Structure formats: structure tokens, C-alpha cells
Amino acid sequence: MTDAATTILIVDDDPTLLRLLGMLLHQEGFRVVAADSAERALALLQTERPQLVITDLRMGGMDGLALFEAVRRNFPLLPVIILTAHGTIPEAVQATRQGVFGFLSKPYEAGALLDEVRRALLTGPDLTGGQPDCPVITRNPAMLALLDEARAVAATDVSVLVTGDTGTGKELLAQTIHDWSPRRSQPFMAVNCAAIPEQLLESELFGHVRGAFTGAVRDHDGLFRAARGGTVFLDEIGDMPPALQGKMLRVLQERRVRPVGATRDGEVDVRVISATHRNLEADISAGRFRQDLYYRINVVTLHLPPLARRRDDIPLLVQHFVGTLAGKYRKALAGVSGEALDLLVRASWPGNVRQLFNVLEKCVALATTPVIPATLVERALNRPAEDL
User: Fold this and answer.
1) What is residue 91's predicted lDDT score, i.e. its pLDDT?
2) What is the Cα–Cα distance from 85 to 95, expressed in whole angstroms?
3) DSSP character for 176?
4) Coil, strand, or helix at residue 1?
5) What is the pLDDT of residue 231?
6) Among candidates 114, 238, 94, 103, which has minimal Cα distance to 164?
7) What is the pLDDT of residues 30-81, one digit of tens each?
8) pLDDT confidence tier of residue 131, bands split at 50, 70 and 90
9) DSSP code per residue over 78-106
10) Cis link prior to 107 (omega < 30° from 0)?
């Protein structure tokens, strides 16, 4: 039997043939999603994540080749098999030249169809980047290579610096590295160095003893001691105050911390992952960041590309976010319209994946139809379509 997580979208306007094909695939262990028209199939593609599409060629409305063209634009790695009782050699040649994976005539032999299905699934998209238990949704080549590096780094205990623009998912990558590491069963503790006042950040990181300062009514471990055996994630480390940079360097060199107000050090056992959107080398030249600390946190650098450089991931992210948000807001949504998806793919995204999620959350919250229209996307983007 085949893994039931493998999903196949089947499309046919003949309900009897649609049911029979679904029964055949279901008996082989596949999860089957059925659509009685190409238009319905495109809507389902925004919420479902099939590894293969099987469609009839001749249907009322949009035909199978037109559906394939739409699939190729939005999901370029998703294989499509076309079935037809009207198949001709010229049509088959045209379809395969355009990139259709397979072209079979009806009535088809079950064995031949299943052989073609299995062959297509070997080339289909892996939405997790080929990494097991990976929350990073991508098929972008640069991101796939980055995940391969993250997998290799996770097996070691070296310090990692994650760089990238705001909203690209630096904390998600850091959490993923921790989850892939031997420390996965221990805590993952994160702190944003830019969000906490300087006078409190030292205590947040290293802890304090009772009476160390006004308001210190009890001992506090701090992140480095609370995360013992696990990982500390220092987000926006480039914004760490200079006075704390020296103390952080000592912690990383000696693997010991001294809480605020204490007279003795304590050992710590943590892995450190840092992140920043800043150019730390420029900050070093300007005297804003210590070069010795930079070398300590930057044993391996992983750079997350902006969303504008991985537009092939936008359809995947859209379908994932819409599905998640539809559940959150208890709305029955089939996805976004083709025009809306085109707007999302072409938008500039200065806020990256975080901005995309925010835009889609607005759309889902305001949606009154099963398919999110382009007008709602334009409104959420706060700009007309012609400016995108």
C-alpha cells in the first residue's frame, strides 16, 4: 500500500468516471481529492497540497490543457497526467511538449495508469524541502540548499548566525535547527535583543539574585541557565548594547555566567544561535559591534533570501497560510482566485513572509465568499493592482 499522505487531485466532469478513478486510486492507498471541473480544481489547489493532478482533457468550461497551463504557472513542479477518450497523437505530442507529464487514452488499463502515477510521483514536488519534520515550506532551489546546510549544522554544536531581512523567518529556521539537533528534547529559549531595555537585558539573559536591584524580589535564572542542555536564540544580536557585548563574549568563551548581583559564576551548557538583519561587518568597522564577538557567534552563517527572490514559494505559502487561517477563523475557504494569486506573486513584499501572512490574515478575516478575490488582496496590500 502507498503512504496515505500522498494526495492526488482528480478532475473530470463525468461523475461516474470521476468516482471510478477515485476508487481505483483509493484502493492503492492514495488520498484522493476530486473536482468536477477545472475551475473547481484550481480553487482546491489553494488549500490542498497534492503531489499529482490527473485530469480529463475535454470538459465543459476550461479544458484539461488550460488547467495544465494554470497549474504550470502557479505550481511549476506539480506533475499533470491527462486522460481523454478523444486523444490523438498530435494532441499527445503537443501536451508532452508543453510539459504534461503523461497522456493516456480512455479506456485506460488500471495497471498502466498506476505505473504512470508512480512514475510521476517520483518527480513531484516535495513541499518540505526534502527534510523530514520541516516546518519551512519551500521548493525554491536556494532555500532547499539552505535547508541541507541547516541539517548538517544541526548535527554539530557550532554557533550559527542566521542573517536576512526582517520577516524572512530567522527564528523559524533557528527553531528548526534546534529541533533537528541532539538538543531537541531540551528547551529552546529565544530573546529579541532589540526589544528589551539595556538595563533589563542583562538580567533576562544571565539572571539576577534577590535584591540585585529595585524590584528584584526573588532570584531569576535568566535564559542561559533556564535553557540548560538546550538552545538559546539571540534575535537581533546586532542591536545588543556595547556594554553587554563584552559580557556575552565572556559567556561564549568560558561557558559560565554570573547573574546580576551575584559573586560567583555558574556553568552553562547551551548551544547559541544568533540572528540579525544588520550588516555586522559594517557595524564592526563603525565600532558598533565587537569583532571578537562576531567571530564567536559566526562559526557558520546561514542567509535567508527575501521573499521577492523566492517567488516560486509564494503559491505554496499562500495555500498553507489560507488553510491555517481559515481554520483559525472558522471559515470555509477554497483559497484565492487566480487573479488574486497573480497579485500576490507580483507584489514587492518588503516585509517578506511575515507581511504575506499579515496580508492573507486580513483577507481571510474579511472574506465573504469561498474564494478570496483580487479586490480583497488589493485592499489588504493597501495599493492598487497597477502599482504592484
Assistant:
1) 58
2) 15
3) H
4) coil
5) 97
6) 238
7) 999 999 999 999 988 877 778 899 999 888 888 888 898 888 777 766 888 9
8) low
9) --EEEEETT--HHHHHHHHHHT-SEEEES
10) yes
Tens-place pLDDT, residues 175-228: 999 999 999 999 999 999 999 988 788 888 887 777 667 666 677 778 998 999
In the beta sheet, which residues pair with residue 346?
none
Phi, psi for 176 (deg, rounded to 5): -65, -45
What one-letter code names the amino acid at 191? V
Residue 146 has pLDDT above 90, yes or no: yes
SS3 257: strand
Q: What is the pLDDT of residue 77?
A: 66
Number of C-beta neighbours around residue 263 at 10 A: 7
- Report helix, strand or coil for 329: coil
CA–CA gap between residue 353 and residue 235 (Å, rounded): 17
Cα–Cα separations (whole angstroms), residue 46 to 143, 160, 184: 21, 35, 33
215 by DSSP, 3-state: which? coil
C-alpha dihedral sign at 26, 30, 31, 35: negative
Contact predicate 117/8, CB 8 Å:
yes
Quote the crossing angle between the two packed helices 110-121 and 15-27, to the nearest 10°. Answer: 70
What string of H, E and C letters represents the secondary structure of 99-134? CCCEEEECCCCHHHHHHHHHHHHCCCCCCECCCCCC
At residue 4 the predicted structure's pLDDT band, cuts being 50, 70 and 90, is very low
- 29-51: buried (b, 16+ CB within 10 Å) or exposed (e) per residue? ebbbbbbbbbbbbbbbbbbbbbb
Total residues found in the chain within this entry? 388
Question: Does position 125 have pLDDT exceeding 90, yes or no?
Answer: no
Alpha helical stretches, state H, the chain: 15-27, 38-44, 64-74, 89-98, 110-121, 141-154, 170-180, 198-206, 223-226, 242-254, 280-285, 291-297, 314-328, 338-346, 352-366, 374-381
